Amino acid sequence: MGNNNCTCCCAHGNAQPDKQPEHIGFLKDYGRILLSASLLFSGIILKATGMGFFADDTVMFAWYLAAYLPVGLPVLKEAWESILQKDIFSEFTLMSIATLGAFYIKEYPEGVAVMLFYSLGELFQERAVSKAKRNISALIDVRPETATVIKGNEAVVTSPRHVQTGDIIEVKTGERVPLDGKMLDEAAAFNTSALTGESIPRTIRKGGEVLAGMISTDKVIRVEVTRPFEKSALSRILELVQNASERKAPAELFIRKFARVYTPIVTGLAALIVLLPFLYSLANAQFSFIFNDWIYRALVFLVISCPCALVVSIPLGYFGGIGAASRLGILFKGGNYLDAIARINTVVFDKTGTLTKGTFEVQSCHTPQGISEEKLLQVIASAEQNSTHPIAKAITGYAKQRHILLSPATEVTEIAGRGLEARIDGQRVLAGNTRLLSEYKVEYPQELSEIADTVVVCAIGSAYAGYLLLSDTLKDDACTAIEELKALNINNIQILSGDKQAIVTNFAEKLGVARAYGDLLPDGKVEHIEELKRNTANRIAFVGDGINDAPVLALSHVGIAMGGLGSDAAIETADVVIQTDQPSKVATAICAGKQTRRIVWQNISLAFGVKLLVLALGAGGLATLWEAVFADVGVALIAIVNAIRVQKLIK
Questions:
Q1: How many CB atoms neighbour CB 86 within 10 A?
Q2: If exposure means fewest CB atoms within 10 Å of the residue's CB, which of 145, 218, 292, 533 is most exposed?
Q3: Where are the beta strands (DSSP E) in 215-258?
Q4: Are residues 86 and 123 in the same domain?
């Protein structure tokens, strides 16, 4: 916020102070305010007790001027710099005019009080925004500063930025992994709370992916680095969250535009408060026009007009919402998505890896006469060995368990929504679903289409060679996820999948979802979402794994990527990334959006309500500068406290 051109009362160069010793920082920030407050209140006491020397106007002026300068000079300087940048109607200009005007009509205490409380409120606002930003960064920025690289028999400690892809790094028990890599040890337990918000240890086995920020909890491990420092999942996520403040919610954008119009209008109205009675007094000799009285009313009007409560508390509310959600393992890419998710009334889930664990297991092999199980498994696993799909991983893992040697596959072509075509030992091999075999005119037993489980069918040459039967299971919180969405009155819940309709229907019945659509290719999912969007009342969130579902994530009103750690597609395409891989966090994300939106609109209502009331009283001469200070600074502080409260409400 400190570097933009909005007329925000904290939008100046002091918003991001340099790091310094705590006691020096305190004196620098609060010393001038304490000095000003001491002189102001001692002056009020001296006048109230009738001290003789204080009755002299020159002494009183000098005393209150000394109280004014510590808090007034920085604001006067900002006002002058704003005017030079052609930003005439900034808060700094309004406060400068109001307080200098108060001195002109000899209302010295009020002039000092306005500037004192304005400066104090501004300082609190800067601190609150700065703390919110630091909290967000601290949630994610747990990247270690050193990495231990194994070179030959030596361990060399260096910066993670200098480690190359393919290097071997060693991580001791209790240390954080500095870079993304592949596990070289047989197995180890890791604390992933920095990435997922979950404290339950996760066991990663040899060849598994280890991510920067994880903590090795039970042994010394070695990892082969697969990504440079700048491209690690943690670095990308940190960049994502830090850039979230750039994507403004509609309420933020409205208030910024509103402040640019609103401030000059009220300045003009303040001038009219003085000018119109003066003109009326010229026309009506019986009307007594006292210049200082009308100037006072105009000054009250000016002080109240500052929109700091709105311009500061609204972004702070979104900062708080983003930070609180981050602690729960939910990353919003900006305040606009926090706002958009609050309006969601339709949630569409991908099935595999989103509602189900996506960790398939081979249950059985079925072959026609003349082909052994080992041959079928070898051919399918050889074709799938370089694929990252969960089903492919399950098949190649099962082949390794049975000690089946794989053959090299060439001319491998992935056919979206169907499977793979490859050449093994000179023969064409097809591995995928029944649609793939139908497309290549390969005959297969029709009963395969009726199996309510996942099957991978194979053809060698142009002949059917059998199939593998696999099963997937629902995630532990999948049923809870659907129940919590229904509790939020989101009843239009759907499942889309490329799996057979029988499999999708089976899972949907277990979850209590009435609308489930199977046999969908990627473009079929896109068409389905487009059909939903034709009804403008539908506000759609699509929840997928962020890899195969990138087009649908981009098409929906809010794209939510599940288990997006390490997935480039998830980070780049989705609007929200759920790090914990828990579908129940979708409801939590929607609640976070609703809570944040409620807090923001509470602040807007409070600020407008109080300001309009005191503006009317000020114009009528019924409010003093003290009430004006409350309407400006007091309401701003109340709004800030309310905005900070969002971090406790999101759980």
A1: 7
A2: 145
A3: 215-216, 221-225
A4: yes
Residue 433 phi/psi, 5-degree rounding, is -95, 180
Is there a domain that residue 523 lies in?
no
- C-alpha–C-alpha distance, residues 636 and 624, integer Å: 18
Q: What is residue 307's three-state secondary structure? A: coil
Dist CA 563 CA 354 (whole Å): 8
Residue ranges of the chain with pLDDT lower than 50?
Answer: 1-22, 565-566
Both 417 and 452 in one domain: the answer is yes
Domain presence at residue 537: no
* Residues in CB range of 601: below 8 A, 6 or more apart: 251
Hey, is 568 helix, strand or coil?
helix
Q: Which domain holds residue 464?
A: 361-471
Cα angle, residue 212 at apex, residues 206 and 217 outer, rounded to 5°: 60
Q: What are residue 189's DSSP bridge partners? A: 203
Q: Which of 471, 500, 517 is the endpoint of a domain?
A: 471
Count CA atoms closer than 13 A to 576's CA, side-chain side. 36
- What tokens appear for 143 in the block? 């990247």
Question: Which residues are within 8 A (CB) of 94 and not within 5 positions of it... i.e. 6 or more apart?
Answer: 263, 267, 302, 303, 305, 306
Q: How far is CA 531 from CA 324, 538, 629, in A?
A: 34, 10, 54
Query: 87, 180, 350, 545: which is the annotated catalytic residue?
Result: 350
367 and 462 share a domain?
yes
Pairing of the two strands 492-496 and 515-517: parallel
Tell me: do 132 and 19 sit in the same domain: yes
Q: What share of the chain is helix, strand, coil (3-state, %, to 5)?
A: 55, 15, 30
Compute the Cα dihedral for 397, 399, 400, 405 and give only its sign: negative
Length of the chain: 651
613 phi, psi to nearest 5 deg: -65, -50
φ/ψ (deg, to 5) at 209? -85, 130
Helical segments of 49-180, H only: 57-84, 91-104, 108-140
Write down the pLDDT at residue 221: 92
**Full-model pTM:** 0.68
**387 half-sphere exposure, CB direction, 13 A CA radius:** 27
Give residues with Cβ within 8 angstroms of 153, minimum separation 6: none
Strand order in the sheet with 346-350: 330-332, 576-578, 558-562, 540-544, 346-350, 492-496, 515-517
The answer to the question of residue 438 being in a domain is: yes
The total number of structural domains in the chain stands at: 3
Active site residue 499: no
- The verdict on 381 and 443 lying in the same domain is yes
* Both structure tokens of 344: 């969601």
Provide the Cα torsion 335, 586, 581, 542; round to 10°: -80
Q: Taking Cα atoms as reference points, which of 506, 505, 512 lies closest to residue 480?
A: 512
Q: What is the pLDDT of residue 61?
A: 92
What gap in Å lies between CA 5 and CA 133, rounded to an integer? 19
Question: What pLDDT is recorded for position 237?
Answer: 64
CA 496, CA 432: separation in Å to the nearest integer?
19
**List of residues 6+ apart from 334 with CB closer than 8 A:** 243, 244, 245, 246, 247, 248, 249, 322, 575
In a domain, 542, yes or no: no
So what's the pLDDT on residue 142?
A: 60
